[in-house]
Amino acid sequence: MKHYHVYVFTQDECKPCNRLKTYVNTLPENDRNEIDFVPFKVNGGQLTALSAELKIEKTPTLVVVHEEHDCVNDGDVDWCEYKEIEVERIVGANNIIEHLDATLEAYTYAHIE
Questions:
Q1: Are 2 and 108 in contact (CB under 8 A)?
Q2: Residue 2 φ/ψ, nearest 5 degrees
Q3: Which CATH class is domain 4-107?
Q4: pTM, two decimal places
Q5: Please, which residues have CB within 8 angstroms of residue 83's CB and are 6 or more apart in sequence?
Q6: In terms of pLDDT, which residue wins out, 3 or 38?
Q7: Which string of DSSP letters, residue by residue, matches the chain?
Q8: How far apart are CA 7 and CA 61, in angstroms?
């Protein structure tokens, strides 16, 4: 079972980001549903928590993370720690567009019919 998440970090007034969004809007719905566009910065100009955690420096940047859950039972209660481990990073609209189909094929169920 695939446990991956595809993030694309963008920001307003970013021409390459807008070009990438326009391209993604031409893809089949299954492909579009696998991609989460997330903001790079908040209104005050600071990096979002997720951008800082994944050390995003430029937009657009696509990051694929593997979702892991470490669960422990302490006798009375089960608790789980949720982690996202980066497995792939693609920077730049042209690079993302070029590799997006293969990335979705490798990490998601978008192409399964």
A1: yes
A2: -85, 130
A3: alpha beta
A4: 0.87
A5: 67, 68, 69, 70
A6: 38
A7: ---EEEEEEE-TT-HHHHHHHHHHTTS-HHHHHTEEEEESB-TTSPBPHHHHHTT--SSSEEEEEEEEEEEEE-SS-EEEEEEEEEEEEEESHHHHHHHHHHHHHHH-STT--
A8: 8
Residue with tokens 């970013």: 14
Which sign does the torsion angle of CA 70, 73, 76, 78 carry? positive
Confidence of residue 4 (pLDDT cuts 50, 70, 90): very high
Which tens digits make up the pLDDT trace of 34-51?
Answer: 999 999 999 888 999 999
